[in-house]
Specification:
single chain; 186 residues; alpha/beta; 6 helices; 4-stranded parallel sheet; 4-stranded antiparallel sheet
């Protein structure tokens, strides 16, 4: 359970989901940040789920070096189109960050598959926060691993806080039809 204090919001990173507290009080007073956090901890401040479509939130997380770089839309579109051709349905996104490429890929696969989805999407990232955001964004449509892609050997593993606390068996990592990544960072 981690509180991340940013410029004008506080993230509450717990098992799931990631909660956002938008500061609505003045920070000019002494101890106002401490008072605000106390209000959060005592449940007196309203929270909302982190909206990964909110560019202001993502920019703040990025500036705080809590997220990876966002793939430009044109590059994401090209990668998505390449990834989903020729019957590729089992896809790994190395350095998936907040799941932007996987979300676009999922939408493309759903459009292609119509009513019979037969895809398996996986992501891997070293940032636990980015991976949790990605998992929240994609839900049960993807499996997100917290690991270094260059050290990943395909072992089954538990990936999120929620999975770590459950008793169900871990998923077996499949062979992949395609491995994609954000250029040129990864």
């Amino acid at each position: 359970h981690v509180l991340v204090v940013l410029e004008d919001l506080v993230l509450d990173i717990a098992p799931t989901p990631i909660l956002v507290y938008t500061e609505d009080s003045s920070t000019d007073e002494p101890h106002s940040v401490a008072t605000y956090i106390k209000e959060i901890l005592h449940g007196r401040q309203p929270a909302s789920k982190l909206d990964t479509e909110n560019e202001d939130h993502l920019r703040q997380l990025q500036e705080a070096e809590l997220l990876s770089y966002q793939t430009p839309s044109a590059a994401a579109e090209l990668l998505t189109n390449w990834t989903t051709v020729d019957g590729r349905r089992t896809i790994l996104n190395a350095g998936c960050g907040t799941g932007q490429l996987l979300a676009k890929t999922l939408n493309q696969l759903k459009d292609d598959d119509q009513d019979t989805p037969d895809h398996s999407l996986w992501g891997i990232d070293t940032s636990r926060i980015a991976a949790e955001i990605s998992q929240n964004r994609l839900g049960e449509d993807a499996t997100i691993l917290v690991s270094d892609f260059l050290e990943f050997r395909g072992e089954p593993q538990r990936t999120t806080w929620e999975e770590e606390s459950c008793t169900s068996p871990t998923k077996t990592v499949p062979s992949f039809d395609a491995v994609i990544s954000h250029p040129p960072v990864v």
